[in-house]
TrEMBL record:
PROSITE patterns: HTH_LYSR (PS50931). Belongs to the LysR transcriptional regulatory family. This is LysR family transcriptional regulator. The keyword Amino-acid biosynthesis does not apply. The keyword Transcription regulation applies. It comes from the Bacteria. InterPro entries: LysR-type_TF_proteobact-type (IPR058163), LysR_HTH_N (IPR000847), LysR_subst-bd (IPR005119), WH-like_DNA-bd_sf (IPR036388), WH_DNA-bd_sf (IPR036390). GO terms for molecular function: DNA-binding transcription factor activity; sequence-specific DNA binding. One of its GO terms (biological process) is DNA-templated transcription. It comes from Pseudomonas juntendi. Residues 12-69 form the HTH lysR-type domain. Keywords: DNA-binding, Transcription, Transcription regulation.
Length: 305
């Protein structure tokens, strides 16, 4: 039989796909119904229609909610991003703006300290792409929040998405040159008697760092603590204490001499803290492909594809 002679495959209704995606996201019919402005019974009906069309069970129902079956997990991976693609295509068709809009979301410190200084270089290379950048520590929903690429901070545990990790990022003890001159540090134990600045949101914090060097955490409290790396780096720049931070984020401080690495050959530690995350379907968007290629050129061998 020739392909053109085959009977057309019945496609699922858009509402059923929306019900499936939202239910998979929340694991709860009531939450999915609230987002979709439907009743829980209507969502359940859409899911039943979809399972009947596919001929396989997508969810395991339980008293506390629903969980995806292996078939459901694979289906979610396969359809992830399709609704977003449809929304973006509709938005572009309805817009008078000729520029293609790349919508990025980033963890705050990476967005401010690494990405922002380089955006002009991207714009110079890709003047036909408009950039929309938002920053928070939330892992946003790609379809609902209209995000093309999410630059996340944390451990890479997003099996439903494509993940590109920034490699060879290191954490180092950083200090203002004047502070280091007054309080030299040649080994980890010297920091017991120093004012330390704590970054609360980083993957590697002072207690774990001291443990890596076979030491217990200092008993005296931290001089300062912040929930953003850029605040920690600014405090260190002003000589308020020693910081344990990413040299990737601290590049401009190190390049200008505002901060220096303390005993870099002994007191650094590798991390894999930043990742570009996106639905697999998004890699088909030209604007996303061009952004990923640009990121690879900026990071070189430090970018994992």
């Amino acid at each position: 039989m020739r392909p053109e002679d085959r009977a057309p495959i019945d496609l699922p209704p858009l509402r059923a796909i929306q019900a499936f995606e939202q239910t998979a996201r929340f694991g709860n019919l009531a939450r999915a119904a609230e987002v979709l402005d439907l009743t829980p019974s209507a969502v359940s009906h859409q899911l039943a229609k979809l399972e009947a069309l596919i001929g396989r069970q997508l969810f395991v129902r339980a008293a506390r909610g629903v969980t995806l079956t292996p078939v459901g997990e694979q289906y979610l991976k396969d359809v992830s991003g399709l609704l977003h693609s449809l929304e973006m295509a509709t938005e572009r068709a309805a817009s008078d703006v000729s520029l293609d809009c790349l919508r990025l979301h980033s963890s705050p410190s990476f967005g401010l300290l690494w990405l922002m200084p380089r955006l002009q270089a991207f714009r110079n290379s890709h003047p036909d792409i408009q950039i929309n950048l938002s920053c928070s520590y939330e892992s946003l929903h790609f379809s609902r929040d209209k995000i093309d690429v999410d630059i996340r901070h944390g451990h890479p545990n997003w099996p439903s998405y494509e993940v590109r990790t920034v490699r060879h990022e290191t954490f180092a003890v950083l200090a203002a040159p004047a502070l280091l001159a007054r309080y030299p540090v040649t080994q980890a134990s010297d920091l017991f008697e120093r004012d330390l600045i704590l970054s609360e949101a980083t993957l590697l914090k002072w207690p774990a760092w001291f443990a890596q060097h076979g030491l217990a955490r200092p008993e005296h409290p931290y001089a300062l603590s912040f929930d953003r790396s850029y605040m920690t780096l600014e405090a260190a720049r002003h000589g308020l204490g020693f910081a344990l931070e990413s040299t990737l984020l601290a590049q401009k401080y190190l390049a200008s001499g505002a901060l220096v690495e303390v005993a870099p050959e002994r007191l650094t530690a590798p991390v894999a803290a930043h990742h570009l995350v996106f639905p697999k379907a998004h890699s088909n968007f030209p604007r996303v492909r061009r952004f990923l290629e640009w990121m690879e050129s900026e990071l070189g061998h430090n970018f994992v594809f």
